[in-house]
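Hey, I was hoping to borrow your eyes for a little while. I've dropped the whole record in just underneath, so have a look:

——
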Amino acid sequence: MEAIPARARVYVACVVLGALCCLLPLPTVRTPWWAVLLLAALYAGCERVAARWRFTGTFYPVLLAGAFLLPPPAAALVAVPGALLSGVEQRPRWLRRLWRAAQLVVGVWVAARVHGALDGRDAVGASDFPYALAPAGAAVLAFCLALTVLDGGILAFAVGVPPAPLGQRGRVPVRRAWRGLFLRSLAPVVVHGLAGLMMAVLWRSPYGPVAALLVLLPMCVSWWVFAQYHRERAAHQATIRALVQAVDIKDGYTRGHSERVGQASMMIARELGMPDERVEVLRFAGILHDVGKLGVPTRLLRKDGPLTPEERRVIELHPEYGHEMVRGISFLGEARAAVLHHHERLDGSGYPYGLVGGQIPESARVVAVADAFDAMTSTRCYSRARPVPVALEELERCAGTQFDPRMVTALVRALSRHGWRPAVTSDEARPPRPRPSAPSRPGARR
C-alpha cells in the first residue's frame, strides 16, 4: 500500500466534510427521486464502462445535466454511487474513491448553486435554449474552477491521491500546484457542459428523458475513440522508453544523454515560439536521436582509442538504423526526420547524405544543436565536461557552418533565462582519458 502523508489525509477529510455539508439539506429539499436515481445509475454505468476501457477521464455530461435539472443537494448526490464504484488501480483504493466522490459532490453542488442563482432551471424548464446558455456557461465555469481548486490542493499536499490529472509524482510546490490546471481542464469540461445542457433541455421537453439519453450516444462514441487514441499513444511512449533504456544500457558512457537532448530540444523549440504539439514532437526527436546505436557493435561504442575509418563508417550508419526503427511510429511526425538527419551540417560536411543549408529539416537542426551542447557539457571517456559558457561559445563559433544560427541563438536565450544543470554521464570512478589529437568519434568535433 502506498504511503499517504498525514497532511493529505487531513486535506481529504476536510473535503469529505465539506461534501457532507453540501448533502445535509437533502431531506428538507423537494427532490424528484426518480430523476436522481436514474441519473445516478446512468453516471455509475458510464464510470464502469470507463474502467473497462481503462480510460482515466470522467464523464461529466450526466453530472452537469443533474446540476441543470435538480436542486443542489440532489444534483450533488448523483455523483456519489458512480465515484464510489469507479475503477481505481492504485492503492489505497478506498481513500481515492472517497476523495473522488467528495470532489465531485462539491463541484456539482457549486455548479447547481450558480445555475440556480441565475434562474437557469427556469430557462431549461421553458426550453429557452438560447437564454439557457448564459447560466449554464457560468455553472460550467464554476464547476471547472471548483475541481481545479481541489485538484491543486491535493497536488500541493500529496503524491497524487486522486487519479492525478497531471500524472505528478512527488510533492508539487504550493506556488506551482494550480499553475495551468484551470486552462487545461476548461475545454473538455465546456464540451461536456454543452452535452449536459442538451440533455437537460430535452429532459424537460415533451420528448422526455428517453430523448435526453440519446445525447449520450455520440458522446460515448467520441469518448471511446479518444480512449483508444490515448491507449495507442501510451503504448508508443512505452516503446520509446524501452528503446532509450536499451541505448543507455548498451552505451554506458552516454547514460541519460538522450533525455537531456530531449530537454534541450524542447527549450529551443519553445524559445522559437513553436506550438506545444510540435514542442512535444521535438522532445521525442531529442530522446530518440541516438536510438540507431542499437544497431552498432558495442565494442565500437565503448572503444576508448581513436576509431579507424572503417569503424567510423559503421558508426555513421546509426542515423539510418534509427530511422528504420522509428519510421513506423506514426505520431512522431517530423521527429523521424530529425533522427535521420541530426548529424548533417549546414556546409554539407555532415552525414549520412551530406545535405546543405535549408535541405536539412528544421527538426534535425534543433536536435543537432541540443546534441552538441549536451555532448560538450557532459564528461565522456574521451573528453571532460566543458562549462556551459564555453560550450555556448563553441556553438556560436560553429554557427553558420555546422549549426543553424537561429537554433544556437534560441538555446543561448533559453539558457540565460532558465539555466542548465548538466549531469555527468560517465562513470565517475573512471578518470577520463586524454582527448585524442583527432576526433575519435563521429559528431565529436564540436
